[in-house]
DNA sequence: GCGGATCAC
DNA sequence: TATGGTGATCCGC
């Protein structure tokens, strides 16, 4: 290991303990890993990896991330107080608009099978019971049972490192058919509760149990217990469940009392806010290792609540959609409707092999892949016009090379011939992986932008099956999606990498006691009455949001609980409007943000130089000036609103009018959360372990 | 349209 | 000895 520079010793922990700065995906707290000596695991992983090509590549990637963080820090530091306060105003306004979309009328259940592959293997071979076991091989583990997790062994970990951590570890090869069989059994059960359930993988599904709860007069928690019992009866496998008002929260909840447990988050706004406020951001689907680091290192954000507190920074430094996503997370919002059908957009295959620079060998690999891909495409009747070649060099650097054709292709020969041209341009090269992907399919439905596209534009956030918002951002670019055509593959490889170096960052969800007085206060608050007690949460962001709501409209205590019901104001123009906007990367929040909610006052640069609001002329090259000008109009408008204009009718709506049920919400809410207001704190965080 | 990144499972 | 495969999306070019 190279000597760590002395000056960095205080800033980072290199030097004495180099493994602490090696950020991997599996040195993290997770269900079944409570008693693990994380320091030791991290050290072993580091020692086993050190010096390898893989490790060197990880170090390169790490350096890039550091740069990214530094750049963002610099931008953050450069913000003037004036800018900040303006963006804070924008953020507050956005929070209000997002709050208005809150829908507490649905009951979502997320089911997650416990260590699925491993559990199935144990079911089929009882001699494995009670012994540490992993499904996978020496190079990669798909999942590990709980006995193995106690040693720090987990999904996505190379087998040879796992064996080092746990020499007794039993390896069982993956048997895809077996898992599919048992998955089908579980799905038969899911179907009886929600015929339209959404399977996001072999072992996970989302169910809308709103109707079941209503018709049978039972709580979401009761349905969850019943369903888990039924799954066990049908398969002999245990699962965990989460019940909440939206998919995003339900998913978080299903992880809390895993394995073989469940957690219900009442459909109550204060309950949601309290729950989300102390939640580590890494628990949220869509926030991965890198995003977490950026948010914590640059903004000091580690819990969802801080997303709202730092709203001004987020809105000024991230794209509008990313900032919206972050603010939504802070509010505990998520998708409440079943996602619309989504068509597959690409098909691909890739293979890893012993690194080689033999051209004959490389072309042979390419040929095999072309054959495979063509066969897969024929099975699905797909023809595409964009071909992408993926390469991973022997030093783990990944490259892609793409080619878009006039014609649609699907035959083995076409794929191979075009792919060969792409590969040829890269020679000579030493590779350990080749992949092929075809996209831009015929019949892409692109001909009818009317419905899907428009809806996407109208809603300021779009969510996929898991309730993860589709969003985008320059340096983050993170997003997630569970396609409806799920790839039933590497299932259990749930990544979680919360670095637990800072001891104060305990996970409140995984412990039974709470030593932090402020947190306890919050929790007690949660356990107590859920209405009319806002004032007792000291410094809570709930207060702040409520204050915002009150300020925006004194009558809105009702509004914030019901759904926006006003009919849309002329939104269909948005497409053209957006395209006329002066979009300057990170600043587009201000401009776009306003146009999507306010049609009548956008700042448009007509003919690309004249402000539509005041007529002032500014050529497009005057980027900064334009920004300031836009800010000026924004501030002007916000002031107007402050002084009493009704902003409520201007609130943007995201949901389609179809499922607006309007008045019934409160009743549904009560019904689905009988424990409202009477949830003792110990119950709130107690593991509900029931052996079916 | 391309290439690099990030994320989920 | 040895660190996966499939699909999606976003951003800056």
Give the class-level CATH name of the domain at 346-444. Alpha Beta
Radius of gyration of CA atoms, rounded to a whole number: 26 Å
Overall CATH architecture of the domain at 346-444: 2-Layer Sandwich
Average pLDDT works out at 74
The CATH topology of the domain at 346-444 is given as Dna Ligase, domain 1
Arrangement of strands in the largest sheet: 5-6-1-7-8
State the helical fraction: 40-55%
Report the major sheet: 5 strands, mixed
Number of helices: 27
Shape estimate: globular
Main location: nucleus
Domain UmuC: 108-288
Keywords: DNA damage, DNA repair, DNA replication, DNA-binding, DNA-directed DNA polymerase, Magnesium, Metal-binding, Mutator protein, Nucleotidyltransferase, Nucleus, Transferase, Zinc, Zinc-finger
Catalytic activity: DNA(n) + a 2'-deoxyribonucleoside 5'-triphosphate = DNA(n+1) + diphosphate
Description:
By secondary structure, this protein is an alpha+beta fold. Among the domains are: 346-444, Dna Ligase, domain 1; 571-650, no CATH class. It is 43% helix and 13% strand. The strands form five sheets. Strands 5-6-1-7-8 form a five-stranded mixed β-sheet. A four-stranded antiparallel β-sheet has the order 9-12-10-11, with helices on one face. Helix 4 packs across helix 16, helix 4 packs across helix 21 and helix 8 runs antiparallel to helix 10 (220-235). The longest helix is centred in the first third of the chain and has 26 residues, at 53-78. Mean pLDDT is 74; it is low at 1-14, 446-538, 558-588, 591-603 and 638-692. It binds a DNA duplex (9 and 13 nucleotides) through helix 3, helix 7, helix 13, strand 9 and strand 11. This is DNA polymerase kappa. It is an enzyme of class 2 (transferase). Residues 563-576, 640-657 have a biased composition (Basic and acidic residues). Belongs to the DNA polymerase type-Y family. GO terms for molecular function: damaged DNA binding; DNA-directed DNA polymerase activity; zinc ion binding.
